[in-house]
Amino acid sequence: MADALAAARAEVLAARREPGIDPEAAERVLRRPDLRTVLLG
């Protein structure tokens, strides 16, 4: 599961650098899996 989270995080960070992507939206997407990880851990 850690590999999937790392891959998702990398993709969101890459998308965040794309023109037209709202950086705040990308931050919200990144926070969701992190919070779930904490709650499940």
Question: Would you write up a description of this structure?
Answer:
Helix content is 80%, strand content 0%. It is an all-alpha fold and 41 residues long. It has one domain. The N and C termini lie close together (12 Å).
What are its keywords?
single chain, 41 residues, 2 helices, flat, mainly alpha
Q: What gross morphology would you assign?
A: flat
How many domains? 1
Helix content class:
over 70%
Structural class: mainly alpha
Question: In a few lines, what is going on in this structure?
Answer:
The chain is an all-alpha fold.
Summarize the topology.
Layout: H1 2-16, H2 23-40
